[in-house]
Prior knowledge:
242 residues; alpha+beta; four-stranded mixed sheet; four-stranded antiparallel sheet; 41% strand; globular
Amino acid sequence: MHRITRTPLAALAVAALGQSGPAAAAEKPLTVVELFTSQGCSSCPAADRLLGVLAKRDDLLPLSVHVDYWDYIGWKDAFAKPANGNRQRGYAARFQLKYVYTPQMVVDGAYQAVGSNENEIKGLIEKASADTHVAVELKRTGAGAEVVLPASQLEGAAEVVAVYFDRKHDVKIKRGENGGNMLSYHNVVRKMAPVALWRGEAKTIQIALPQDKDGGEACAVLIQMQDSRRIVGAARLPVSGS
Length: 242
């Protein structure tokens, strides 16, 4: 496990979800698994492989979120963005961690563990899937898409976060800790950004779809509580390819 030490961060208050729309009981909700990883981290390939296994499950939305703070070791991760590291530091605050580290998996924004610990990760997924979720619909509308949210009882506000990602990349690592290895990455996040704030009212939100090759092959939305960072709903939509 690679880690960067941070000063202690104050805990964030946990916001609870009251009730979800009626469709939530009829269809199993997606559980979101974010893997914070780096091509320059020798501890990460095992977690990357586990994410590939999880990506085969219909009930999960696994995301490979690449961070850039290991680039100095000798290999620049082409998928890493400063914003991804900032997102992980937000989780460090939420979990009262003194450091950020790779590989880390965060499940529904509510639970975290070392990303290569398969048994613990599967236990957290089972735990998160039993939590209450909002029924989210994401559907294509011409050149864009729309997010349909039912009236729900929320304690606080939630961010509607658009995520654009590629299904798979195989990368030959030429230098650094993984130098000489061909590594595979699944559901690689290319862009993640909040598009709206939601307080539980019935709402339809328009979002753009990527228009260039670096924008991502697929699109998803996360409904993430602003204070606790818990993800209370998610949906996905293919953008291009099969």
